[in-house]
Every structure is written in structure tokens, then in C-alpha cells.
Design brief:
alpha/beta; 8-stranded mixed β-sheet; 16 strands; 20% strand; disordered N terminus
Length: 409
């Protein structure tokens, strides 16, 4: 993240990631009988399945479920049948922690997919790590989750059991800043966040890079994510003279915020991260949202040759909910767990060992495969090695991709 850093345009790869909970037999216990004398391994999924963010959460759950069904159909791991168990965290850290305890309490759970929110993940990580239960998130982007609170100056891996397929806000924020300043030619920004781990962190990395590039921050504000009345903030934005607004947070608040800013007379684009990249943002923001921007991890799944089978299979499976922004990542997150289980089983004469959880966590570090979203593998912090990002613009009532690339600082 140096001044005048360049965006290197690379091949469009999307990193699909999910956090999975795998349940399998331990020791001499054969676990759940699959009907053929085999072992059932449960892949746990934690996500917001109800509430404002359920559109994203249900896409995560369904995509992980599709991965499990595909592995069973292909007999990817001989003698193992995979099954998904999903728990609703309602995007609340306290609920996420309770779910983590539930997963840990089931001796057959060998891995967990999720959660969506970085703040929820913070409440789960130690619970999983103490139990040596692997966690793979398709959506967490807060850098501190993997690299520690002082990641800007000294990166230290926090938990050996934590992995993710989504790239971090250490890259996403600056990537957005470069696009806004260099491509969109916006020089004066008003920065707003929701005070949560994800939103505040993303706003912080965007601001740092935008200022390095020569941009001016003409105002900052924190909003209460439990309210939908942002008229006071909208008035401040109008008076500031900003030519763009950057919002760190999620679409349930970003949509109304964008709408109210325009209504206040500031006809300027609102820019956000992957947390606002959802069709519901456009519905909430209304017709004046045309021109609003969002960055998201990876490249558009619909444009990837590697994702064609996933898209077709998801449709055939008949899920009533869209796979949404993290579908590809979730499938790949679940598949990473499946690959780790496969390695452990193959190394133990075709069966799960008594210390299966620890072995699966250990195996995850070296998992590498060609996934829905491109090459899936993890670095020394458990972060995705795929650093691809995409800028989306609201056009004709929907987000459309305008530029894919990677940030090089």
C-alpha cells in the first residue's frame, strides 16, 4: 500500500469460500451409518439464515450443501458420506459463539464453514481453535482475524484452525480507493461506517490509501446500524462538498443511506465493499442508486469458465434462494474441508483417526485445488492466496462488473 500503487489487472478469478463443519467418526466409533457401512461426516455451516442478511447466508448454506452432495455423488472420499448441518447466527456475535460451542460439542464435527460476518467470527475463533476444529470462511474480510490486531506493522497468525477463501480488507479497501481516485476521478470523499469490525476496518483501509493517492477526506461519520433514519448524516454529506461517499458496512443500512443522501440533494455515488454487493441494496436504495459502486472479492462467478458447472448444478438442484455473492466461495470452502478429510482418511488406511479434528486442521494448510472461483490454497496466515477483486456499478437496476484486478501496494 504505497502511494501511487498500481492495480495489476489479472485473469478474472473469484475466490469462493465457506466455513464448513465436518462431522465424522472418531477412533473406533463408526459415526452415523450411511446405510452401506460407511461413515457420515457432517459439514457445519454457520451463517445468518434469518434477518436482514439472510439472502447472503442462505446462499452460503445452499452452496456448501451442493458441495457435499457433489462429493457424495462422485464418491470423492471412499467410505465417507458428507452431510451439511447449518446453524443460524442472525449476524450476531453472541449467537455465533453459541453455535460454535454446539459444533464443538458434537464429537463428529470435523470442520465448520462460515461465518459471513467478521464480528461474528471474532466470537467463534477461540472456541474452534481450542477444540482444534477447522473453520473456513467464504466471506470474512477483516485482516485482524488472521494476522492479528497489529497487522499493519506486525503480522502474527492468530489461530491455526482459521482459514478463509475471501481476500481481506487490507487489499479490498485500497483497491476501492485506487478505483475511486484513478478511474472514477473522485477527489473529495465523505467516509461513513457502522462501527462494526468489518465496516470500520474497511473504511479505515480505504481512507488510508485514498489519502496517500492525494484525495481529501471532507468528513467522517459513524452510524447506528440498528436505525434506518440517516437524514442527519445525509445533510452533513450535502454540506461537505464531497463528490463521493464511502460506506463501510452492509446493504441493509447502505441502501437507505444512499437513498437519503440523494434525497438530501447530494447527487453523488455511494461506494462500499462486498457487504453491499447484493440485489437488495439496489431495492433499498431505489432508482437513484444508478452509479453507486461496490467492490467484492473475486471475479464474477458468471464470467468464470471454472464456475459454469457450479452455476448449472445449483440451478438443477432447485434451491429456492440465489447462491448470491458468496456462493462460489462457499462451495470452495466446503470443498476445501472435503479435500482435507480425504487427505486424512487416505493417510490413515481409509478411515478417520481418533484425532481427526487436529489432523483435518493440519491438512487444511496444504490443501490446493482448482475450484469454482479459481485456484484455492492458503498462505501462512490461513488467508486465501487468490487476491482477485472486482468493482461493480449499479446499472439498469442491478450491479454489473466494470473492472477486475488485484491490488499491489
Amino acid at each position: 500500500m504505497r502511494q501511487r500503487s498500481l492495480i495489476a489487472i489479472t485473469a478474472a478469478l473469484a475466490a469462493g469460500a465457506l466455513t464448513l463443519t465436518a462431522c465424522g467418526s472418531r477412533g473406533g466409533d463408526k459415526g452415523s451409518d450411511s446405510g452401506k457401512g460407511g461413515t457420515t461426516v457432517i459439514i457445519g455451516v454457520d451463517a445468518p439464515l434469518t434477518g436482514d442478511l439472510s439472502a447472503l447466508g442462505l446462499g452460503i448454506k445452499n452452496s456448501a450443501d451442493l458441495a457435499a452432495k457433489t462429493a457424495n455423488k462422485q464418491k470423492t472420499v471412499e467410505g465417507i458420506t458428507f452431510k451439511v448441518q447449518a446453524l443460524d447466527d442472525q449476524a450476531q456475535p453472541s449467537s455465533g459463539q453459541q453455535n460454535a460451542v454446539k459444533f464443538v460439542a458434537d464429537k463428529n464435527v470435523l470442520g465448520v464453514v462460515g461465518p459471513l460476518n467478521s464480528s461474528v467470527s471474532e466470537s467463534m475463533q477461540k472456541v474452534f481453535d481450542d477444540a482444534k476444529l477447522v473453520q473456513v470462511s467464504p466471506a470474512n474480510t477483516g485482516p485482524s482475524l488472521s494476522q492479528g490486531p497489529d497487522w499493519r506493522t506486525k503480522k502474527v497468525r492468530q489461530y491455526k484452525s482459521y482459514f478463509r477463501t475471501a481476500t481481506t480488507d487490507a487489499i479490498q479497501g485500497p483497491f476501492a480507493a485506487q478505483y475511486v481516485y484513478n478511474d472514477a476521478k473522485k477527489k473529495k470523499v465523505f467516509v461513513i461506517d457502522d462501527k462494526k469490525t468489518y465496516g470500520a476496518g474497511l473504511a479505515g483501509t480505504f481512507t488510508e490509501e485514498f489519502k496517500k493517492l492525494g484525495g481529501k477526506v471532507v468528513g467522517t461519520e459513524h452510524i447506528d446500524p440498528d436505525t434506518k433514519d440517516f437524514s442527519a448524516v445525509a445533510t452533513k454529506v450535502k454540506k461537505s462538498g464531497a463528490d463521493v461517499v464511502y460506506y463501510g458496512g452492509e446493504y441493509p443500512q447502505a441502501g437507505p443511506l444512499s437513498k437519503q443522501i440523494k434525497a438530501a440533494g447530494a447527487k453523488i455515488p455511494l461506494v462500499g465493499g462486498d457487504g453491499i454487493n447484493d440485489a437488495d441494496f439496489v431495492k433499498l436504495a431505489g432508482p437513484d442508486s444508478t452509479g453507486d459502486l461496490a467492490t467484492s472479492v473475486g471475479a464474477p462467478v458468471e464470467e468464470l469458465d471454472s464456475a459454469k458447472q457450479f452455476v448449472a448444478d445449483y440451478k438443477t438442484a432447485g434451491y429456492k434462494d440465489e447462491y448470491s455473492a458468496y456462493g462460489g466461495y462457499s462451495y470452495d470452502s466446503a470443498w476445501a474441508i472435503i479435500e482435507a478429510v480425504k487427505k486424512v482418511v487416505e493417510d490413515n488406511d481409509g478411515k478417520l483417526p481418533s484425532d481427526a479434528r487436529a489432523k483435518v486442521t493440519e491438512a487444511m494448510q496444504n490443501v490446493s485445488f482448482d475450484g469454482v472461483t479459481g485456484k484455492v490454497s492458503f498462505d501462512e496466515f490461513g488467508d486465501a492466496t487468490n487476491k482477485q477483486l472486482t468493482v461493480y456499478r449499479v446499472e439498469n437496476g442491478a450491479f454489473a462488473p466494470v473492472k477486475s484486478g488485484t491490488f499491489t501496494g
